[in-house]
From TrEMBL:
One of its GO terms (cellular component) is membrane. It comes from the Eukaryota. Residues 10-22 have a biased composition (Basic and acidic residues). This is Nephrin. The keyword Transmembrane applies. Residues 58-158, 165-244, 264-354, 361-436 form the Ig-like domain. Its main location: membrane. SMART domains: IG, IGc2. CDD domains: FN3, Ig. Residues 1-67, 604-636 are annotated as: Disordered. The chain crosses the membrane at residues 571-595. Residues 23-37 have a biased composition (Acidic residues). Keywords: Disulfide bond, Membrane, Transmembrane, Transmembrane helix.
Length: 704
C-alpha cells in the first residue's frame, strides 16, 4: 500500500482513529507497573490531577517491498543478482510513537525512523543499492520499540535471489578429433540459481542433442553433447553457452576451435586444355590429382584398372606426385584411371576417370585368322569382331576362291563392334577365303579379319604325346592337337594293360591325368580326336610304366590303423635309442679290432693304387671303383673289384661287413705264408681270387 492510499484512508476514518487513541489511553493503565504508579503518586501533590505519562505499546509491525506489497511467509520475492532492494518496516499505534530499526546478524543496519504523527505510524526503510551473492537468503530483522522496559517487537525476513552462473567450462583438452567418429563432449556450469540452461552452438548456429543433469545441491549443471565431426567442421568453433533466464545478461560460454582430422579428399581431372572425347593415338595426355587432407598426405599413387603405375620413360609413363603424364598414348592406354592418396586417417581413392583413346578398327580374336569347316549345304555362322574406339558401325565382307578373283557379300547383319555373316557353301567353288573389314569415324580397318572356309571332315589325331609326373599310381599324358577338320573337337584317351581296358578319358584339351593305376605295371594308351564328322585315327602308341610301390612302412601307413597294441609314452623311444647305440658301438669295436689285426698280422703290405682318371670313374658315384694290382687268389688281404650287379640287385639286403672264417692251411699266393684264420671283408665288394687262374671262385663265407 502506498503513502497516498494511507493518507486517504486516514482522512476518511479520522473519527475512527480518534476512537482508537481514546481506547489506547484507557488501555495504557494496564501496562503501567506498580512502581510507575507509585512514582507518579509521590510526585503529585495533594489535590493535583494525575500526570498523563502512561505509555501504549505499538499495535503491529508490517514489512512491505518497494511495490508496497506485504512480505508473507518471511521471505521476499526473488531478486536478480545485481538488482536493488528496498524494504519498509511500518508500525502503527503506540504512545509515544515507536522507534523502528533494521538489523542483520546482530548488527545494526539502519535506525532512521520516519514518524507520521497524523497517522499514528512510524517506519524505517532498508535500502540495498546492489544485491550480491552474499545477500542470498540473508535474514534482516525489523525491531519496533517505544519503551526500554518492554522488549521490542521483532519481525524477520529473508532475501530470496536469482544468481547468475559463476563458471562455464568445457571438460577435457581441446584435442584433434577424427572425422566420422562419435565423441561425448561435456560442459559444466556452476553457481547458477536456479540451475542454468546450457545450449550448444557450432559456428554460431545451435546444435541439438545435449543432455542436461543437475547435481543434488543444485549448484552444478552438466550437459553432454554427442558430437560426430565431419571434415567440413575443421576450423569452426564449438561453444557451450550457459544462462539464467531470470537474471538479465547472465550468459556465459566456453569455446573450442575444432581441429578435425580426416582422410584425403581426392579428385581426378584431365589436364587443362584436353578434351576427353577427342583423344587419339599418339597424343600426350596428363592428369591432375587435387587433394584436401588433414594431416597432409604421405604419398600419392596412380592406378590404371586397379594396377599401380610407376614411372617408365620407355613406356611413356611419367609419375610426378600429383601429376600423371602419358606420352604417345595408344589403344592399350585406354582404361579406368584412379588417383589414390593416404594419410594417418586412411586412404582414399578418387572416382574413376575412363580414358578412351580413339583408334581405327583392328581385328579382334587373336588376329582374326580362322579355319572353319563346313559340309556342302551346311549353313555356317561367322562372327567378325573388331576392336575400335568408337566402335565400328560399318562392315564389309568379301569372298574369294581364286587369287585375284573376289566378290562382295551383302547378306550380313551389323551392330556396333561386330558383324555376323551366314554363309552356306554349295559347290567346291564356294570354299575359299572370307575377309571382313570394319569402319568408324577415324577410318577403315587396314588389315581384314580372315576366315578360311574348308570342307568339313574328321579331325587329325593328336601327336607328340609325352608322359610325365609318373608315380606308383598315376601318370600325366600331354599331346599336341592336330587339325580339327573345320569343326569343334574333343580328345579321348584309351588306356589298356595286357590288352585289358583300364580307363577311357575325354577332355576338351589334349592333356590327361590318369589315376588309380597299379604299381610297377606296363600300360599302353592311344589318343583320338573327335568332332561332329567322326573319330580321327589313333595316335602313336603311348607306353607307360608306373613306379614300384612304396616300402612296407608306407604300405602299413596306407592300410589304416594297426590293431596291435602300441607302446605309449617315451619308453619306446628310449629302448630304440639304447638299442641303436649298442649296435653302433659294437660295430665300431669289431671294425677297429679287425683293422688292427689286419695291419699287424698281414705279411704283405698293400700296394698303393693309382687314383682313377676322370673318365674311368663309374657312372654310379655312390659306389667306389677299385683296381687290383696283384691278382693273387691266395692273398686274403687283397680287395677284389666290386660286384656291381650284386650291388644294384638288392642294396637293402647287403650287410655292411662280414667276418669270415677260413682254414689256416691257406697261404698267400706271393709269400706262401699261412693266412690268419679270421679276416674282415666287405660282403658286397670283397672276393678272393684263384692263385693260378686269377678268377674269383664261388664266394663262400660264413657270417658271424
Amino acid at each position: 500500500m502506498t503513502h497516498e492510499e494511507d493518507d486517504e484512508t486516514y482522512k476518511d476514518n479520522s473519527e475512527h482513529n480518534l476512537k482508537i487513541e481514546v481506547e489506547a489511553d484507557v488501555q495504557e493503565e494496564s501496562y503501567q507497573t506498580d512502581e510507575e504508579e507509585a512514582s507518579h503518586s509521590t510526585r503529585r501533590g495533594p489535590g493535583r490531577p494525575k500526570r498523563d505519562g502512561r505509555r501504549v505499546p505499538p499495535q503491529g509491525v508490517q514489512i512491505n517491498d518497494e511495490s508496497g506489497f506485504s512480505i508473507k511467509n518471511g521471505v521476499t520475492k526473488a531478486y536478480a543478482d545485481g538488482a536493488g532492494l528496498s524494504l519498509t518496516c511500518v508500525t502503527a499505534g503506540g504512545k509515544p510513537q515507536a522507534q523502528v530499526s533494521w538489523w542483520r546478524d546482530g548488527e545494526l543496519v539502519t535506525d532512521e525512523t520516519q514518524f507520521y504523527p497524523e497517522r499514528g505510524k512510524s517506519q524505517a526503510v532498508l535500502k540495498i543499492a546492489k544485491l550480491t551473492r552474499s545477500h542470498l537468503l540473508a535474514v534482516y530483522s525489523c525491531e519496533v520499540s517505544n519503551s526500554r522496559l518492554q522488549p521490542p517487537l521483532v519481525v524477520r525476513v529473508a532475501v530470496d535471489m536469482f544468481l547468475r552462473p559463476l563458471e562455464v567450462k568445457l571438460q577435457g583438452e581441446n584435442a584433434p578429433l577424427s572425422a566420422g567418429r562419435r565423441y561425448d563432449i561435456i560442459c559444466k556450469c556452476k553457481g547458477s540459481r536456479p540451475p542454468a540452461i546450457i545450449a550448444w552452438m557450432k559456428d554460431g548456429l545451435p546444435l541439438e542433442g545435449g543432455t542436461m543433469t543437475v547435481s543434488p545441491d543444485g549448484n552444478t549443471t552438466t550437459s553432454t553433447l554427442s558430437f560426430t565431426p565431419t571434415s567440413s567442421d575443421h576450423g569452426l568453433t564449438l561453444s557451450c553457452r550457459a544462462s539464467n533466464q531470470m537474471v538479465p545478461h547472465s550468459e556465459m560460454r566456453d569455446t573450442w576451435m575444432l581441429r578435425v582430422l580426416y582422410p584425403p579428399k581426392v579428385t581426378l581431372t584431365l589436364g587443362h586444355g584436353l578434351n576427353a572425347n577427342d583423344i587419339k593415338e599418339g597424343a600426350d595426355v596428363y592428369f591432375e590429382c587435387h587433394l584436401v587432407a588433414n594431416p597432409w598426405v604421405l604419398r600419392v599413387w596412380w592406378l590404371r584398372d586397379g594396377h599401380r603405375l610407376l614411372s617408365n620413360s620407355t613406356a611413356g609413363i611419367i609419375v610426378s606426385n600429383q601429376t600423371l603424364v602419358l606420352q604417345g598414348v595408344n589403344r592399350a592406354s585406354s582404361g579406368r584411371y584412379f588417383c589414390e592418396a593416404g594419410n594417418s586417417e586412411g586412404t582414399t581413392r578418387s572416382a574413376p576417370f575412363q580414358l578412351r583413346v580413339k583408334f581405327e578398327p583392328v581385328c579382334g580374336e587373336s588376329g582374326g585368322r580362322k579355319v572353319l569347316g563346313a559340309a556342302k549345304g551346311e549353313p555356317l555362322r561367322i562372327e567378325c569382331k573388331v576392336d575400335a574406339e568408337p566402335a565400328a558401325s560399318l562392315f564389309r565382307w568379301i569372298f574369294n576362291s581364286t587369287p585375284g578373283v573376289s566378290r562382295e557379300l551383302n547378306e550380313f547383319t551389323a551392330e556396333p563392334g561386330s558383324s555376323v555373316l551366314t554363309y552356306t557353301p554349295s559347290i567346291a567353288a564356294h570354299y575359299g577365303t572370307l575377309q571382313c573389314w570394319g569402319r568408324n569415324e577415324l577410318g577403315s580397318q587396314q588389315t581384314p579379319c580372315v576366315y578360311h572356309i574348308v570342307p568339313a571332315g574328321r579331325p587329325d589325331p593328336p601327336n607328340g604325346c609325352v608322359v610325365f609326373n609318373v608315380t606308383h599310381h598315376s601318370v600325366v599324358v600331354n599331346c599336341k592337337k592336330g587339325f580339327d577338320g573345320g569343326l569343334r573337337q574333343k580328345f579321348v584317351l584309351v588306356i589298356t594293360a595286357a590288352e585289358n581296358l583300364t580307363a577311357n578319358l575325354s577332355s576338351t584339351v589334349p592333356e590327361f591325368q590318369i589315376t588309380n593305376l597299379d604299381a610297377t605295371t606296363d600300360y599302353t594308351a592311344l589318343a583320338y580326336s573327335v568332332n561332329a564328322k567322326g573319330w580321327s585315327k589313333a595316335s602313336n602308341t603311348i607306353f607307360m610304366k608306373t613306379l614300384p610301390s612304396p616300402g612296407l612302412k608306407e604300405l602299413r601307413r596306407s592300410t589304416g590303423p594297426s590293431t596291435e597294441e602300441k607302446v605309449d609314452g617315451p619308453w619306446l623311444y628310449i629302448l630304440l635309442a639304447a638299442g641303436s647305440t649298442l649296435i653302433v658301438a659294437g660295430a665300431i669295436g669289431v671294425i677297429i679290432f679287425a683293422v688292427k689285426r689286419f695291419k699287424i698280422d698281414s705279411p704283405v703290405r698293400e700296394r698303393r693304387s693309382r687314383s682313377p682318371k676322370r673318365d674311368e670313374l663309374p657312372l654310379n658315384p655312390t659306389v667306389s671303383a677299385f683296381t687290383d694290382t696283384i691278382n693273387d687268389d691266395k692273398n686274403p688281404d687283397l680287395i677284389p673289384p666290386p660286384d656291381y650287379e650284386s650291388l644294384h640287385s638288392d642294396p637293402t639286403t647287403a650287410a655292411p661287413y662280414t667276418i669270415s672264417a677260413r682254414p689256416s692251411t691257406k697261404r698267400n699266393c706271393a709269400t706262401q705264408m699261412p693266412v690268419k684264420p679270421y679276416h674282415v671283408t666287405w660282403a658286397p665288394m670283397l672276393q678272393s681270387r684263384n692263385c693260378s687262374t686269377q678268377t674269383p671262385p664261388p664266394h663262400k663265407e660264413s657270417s658271424v
